[in-house]
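Help! Submission page says 'invalid entity' but I think these are all valid:
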Amino acid sequence: MKDLKIYSRRDFPPYLPKLNSLYDDLFSGGKGFRAELIRRISGHLGLGEKPILLQAQTIEFIHNASLLHDDLIDRSHLRRGKPSAWLKYTPEYAVLAGDYLLARVMVNLSEYGNLRLLQYTAQMISDLLEGEWIQDSLVKDFSVTIDQLDQVHYLKTASLFKWCLRAPFLTAEIYDEELHGLLDQMGDLIGLLFQRSDDLLDFDIRNHEGKAVLGDLKSGYINSFSAVLMEDLSKENRELYVHCQTMKGLREVVGEDYFNAKLKLFDDINQSKIDLYGHHLQRLIESLPASQRGVEKELSRLPRILYWRDPKA
Amino acid sequence: MMSGFVTIESDNRDHRKLLDGESKDGHWALPVDSFRYSDGRERTTFRLVEANPNKPSFATRLWVLLRPSLISMTLGPLFLVLAYGRFLDTPMNFAAFATSFFGLLFLHIATFAYNDYFDHLRGIDRYSQDSGSQVIQKGWFRAKVVRRIADVSMLGAAVSGLIIFVSQPELLVLASLMALAAAFGFSSVRLGLKTLGIGEMIVFVSLGPGLVYGLSKAVLNHFDISLLFLGLLMGTLSSLVMQVRNWQQIFVASRFKLGTFVSRLGFDRSKYFIHLHLVLASAYFGVLIYSDRFAAWAVPAVIPLGLLVYRFVQHVNETASPFSSKILNLDRRAVRLHQLMIVTLILVFELTMRLK
């Protein structure tokens, strides 16, 4: 199967000023991991090129719409190393461009005509927006716990991963309740693991992509690893911690041994999630017919890619 | 410590056994996630672990299960009635007091142990780690042990209640009315009474005017207007604790479609509802404490309470969402308010009596 071209100028009206330039910027540089995951799973379900492209566009449009809105909400100046859309094209255009992507998703899916897929996508967008909404209320909340953050991440991050796992089966008109329940649980786990790993990047842990460090903390957001790190800090050190600007300074505040012990604890907690994911995967293998075997190969690699960020996986 | 997982459906005979915490090959089975089918069946995944080697002593675990922080809600009114009886110099039935004490204590244990057990079965405590005492989820008690503790406590409460009712038959009418209200409120799903606030009303009556009336009749054989306000005050504060708990759990309640009154109101409007409780409690307290029976010196008694109420209101107003850290200990603050109210009133009754 040839590479998927998620974004094409021809899919959007040529008469709207700035829209195509904004999308050109937005869609260049993304890894398209979710679309690739869908492509791989769909390949094992015998889906054709058109439904695969539809799904890939759906997830990437939704993901990118959330980035447009996210950057504005967080007042982030950079996205994938370039000026954020709200800075370059004005906040109004960024909001409209995000809304337009979500509308396009609904138009495309309605034309395709799979009602279950359409309903599930609408639910996912709703969960995603709930997560965005709640997350914004947590800015400058320096005592938030990892359990509270998990609830947000289930809505905001895991909802997209669940969609990636379930949508190919819905598109293939496989509606088995048990199978979808299982994929739902696996999606929750893998989404949470991805988010937690992403939170570790902020501390320069397994940061192979060279992502900017301490971005969350500097913008007043306590991420999941921060919540674990801050758990046993004294009041004075917590105060110092939230004002840290560099990793060197942060490690000095919490102490090297403390930092490493917390990192190990964090990895252990997440390893138990990976074990649970492995258990569900085994059950999935047992329930899949021979014709759909191969899906598990794609799914078994996910913890290594998404949590451990293993470049060889 | 970890040794794998097992997934089992609710119509499998072993499902209930595992949920009850019965061991499988010498391991404890702790539920970690579940999936509910559209026909209501459930599929639960258990993590099989070796018995928690770091669990505290039995006494500590039992103490946590009993929710000592909430005991003032059940036993507080009894001691208030006792203090009010001393203030009035009314003869007291000590046998009834002792029976009521143990009856309420057993009822308290049974209520919270059942709550832990059934929330565990329904999966609510798995979803929200801030819900219940978490003794089952931490591997401190097997679920069936929690159920057994609840059963034994309920038996103790029933025996104590029976003794009181035999000696005070008119209280049976009150008890029957409350049981009827409870049955309607919690069983009639079709009428939707639970979502209309009947459950909250039951808590208000049974931990407020109903309880104070029953206790004052049993222990003092007396009831007057001050006791009515005392009951209203206790009921309002107990309801406040419950509303705050519901407010903290509004996300889980919405996701599980548990229609609490607070989830019908919505997050922001519930703040006003919580404040309304404080206004009503302040009004009842004012009427009670500044009626002509009490000395003017009782005025300063309101200061610590006022401060606590002020900080409580501030905390509620600063809570930005159900995920805000501000909301985490709000129920404990409400309980502290309840406790300080009881201590303040007992002191006022006692000192007014001594200074008379």
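Support: the input was valid. A stray whitespace character was the problem, and the output above is from the cleaned input. The two ends of chain B are 65 Å apart (CA to CA).
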